[in-house]
């Protein structure tokens, strides 16, 4: 099966600062991929490399088996909704649909028209008069009507209120189920990804910390809670992802097989938010060093 996105040693540097480095991933088709990490982690840089907006400093990247933005055929296969769901304020909703039809050879006019009607958008209204949620839905409509094999969305709901975010993500999920395309959705709002994504990539400090199918990642990570460990190591051979210590208690998140039960320790599973926060937790190294 062709990878929807494949990168090997991918990096992008601005002067002396690396916005992304040593990125190696291989995402199969057919997933809704959540790309999550703190602001400045490299999410937008990775997506701009995937769309061909940026050229890599090191390594390489392939999208749907080809080079990003390699030509009209490749461009037609990828839809992109950038941050702040950009639309043209002075143009009407109908103008946006006409431009979409002219620029995209696979344009689905019926899908676009029916979606605008279902959303209750007036084709004669200028985009600048729409609410933030309506502008986001218009941008999503343009991306969907292109009928791409891959739809890339860069923090599309970050500025929306909870109701508008819910409606946007609901529309995205309905379209994904109906048209069977792949999605890469970046966000720092883990709760949004938890509802929509079945594949996860965590970016922290410009590096990929973990990537894989969500169910498999959750099954491979455990939280251990028990008496404070004076040596700073958990009672298991698993890899330590994060560590927290109080005067009497230690809590570890570890990656690996389920550890053998110790009566003094509690082993529990993780949710997606727990997993993401563990990889974003920078306290591990300092905590371990302090206990040595």
From TrEMBL:
<dbReference type="GO" id="GO:0016887">
    <property type="term" value="F:ATP hydrolysis activity"/>
</dbReference>
<feature type="domain" description="ABC transporter">
    <location>
        <begin position="5"/>
        <end position="230"/>
    </location>
</feature>
<keyword id="KW-0813">Transport</keyword>
<dbReference type="GO" id="GO:0005524">
    <property type="term" value="F:ATP binding"/>
</dbReference>
<keyword id="KW-0067">ATP-binding</keyword>
<dbReference type="InterPro" id="IPR027417">
    <property type="entry name" value="P-loop_NTPase"/>
</dbReference>
<dbReference type="InterPro" id="IPR003593">
    <property type="entry name" value="AAA+_ATPase"/>
</dbReference>
<protein>
    <submittedName>
        <fullName>ABC-2 type transport system ATP-binding protein</fullName>
    </submittedName>
</protein>
<dbReference type="InterPro" id="IPR051782">
    <property type="entry name" value="ABC_Transporter_VariousFunc"/>
</dbReference>
<dbReference type="Pfam" id="PF00005">
    <property type="entry name" value="ABC_tran"/>
</dbReference>
<dbReference type="InterPro" id="IPR003439">
    <property type="entry name" value="ABC_transporter-like_ATP-bd"/>
</dbReference>
<keyword id="KW-0547">Nucleotide-binding</keyword>
């Amino acid at each position: 099966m062709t990878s929807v996105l494949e990168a090997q040693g991918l990096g992008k540097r601005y002067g002396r600062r690396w916005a992304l480095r040593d990125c190696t991933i291989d995402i199969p088709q057919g997933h809704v991929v959540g790309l999550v990490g703190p602001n400045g982690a490299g999410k937008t840089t990775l997506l701009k490399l995937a769309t061909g907006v940026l050229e890599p400093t090191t390594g390489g990247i392939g999208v749907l088996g080809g080079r990003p933005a390699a030509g009209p055929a490749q461009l037609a296969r990828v839809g992109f909704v950038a941050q702040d769901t950009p639309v043209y304020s002075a143009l009407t909703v109908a103008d946006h649909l006409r431009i979409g039809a002219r620029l995209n050879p696979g344009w689905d006019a019926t899908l676009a028209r029916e979606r605008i009607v279902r959303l209750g958008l007036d084709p004669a209204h200028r985009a600048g008069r729409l609410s933030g949620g309506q502008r986001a839905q218009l941008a999503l409509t343009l991306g969907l009507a292109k009928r791409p094999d891959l739809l890339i969305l860069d923090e599309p709901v970050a500025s929306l209120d909870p109701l508008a975010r819910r409606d946007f993500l609901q529309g995205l999920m309905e379209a994904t189920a109906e048209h069977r395309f792949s999605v890469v959705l970046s966000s720092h709002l883990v709760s949004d990804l938890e509802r929509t994504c079945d594949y996860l990539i965590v970016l922290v400090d410009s590096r990929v910390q973990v990537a894989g199918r969500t169910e498999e990642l959750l099954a491979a990570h455990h939280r251990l809670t028990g008496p404070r460990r004076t040596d700073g190591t958990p009672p298991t051979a698993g890899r330590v992802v994060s560590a927290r210590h109080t005067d009497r208690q230690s809590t570890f998140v570890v990656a690996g097989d389920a550890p053998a039960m110790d009566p003094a320790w509690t082993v529990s599973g993780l949710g997606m938010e727990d997993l993401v926060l563990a990889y974003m937790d920078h306290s591990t190294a300092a905590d371990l060093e302090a206990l040595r």
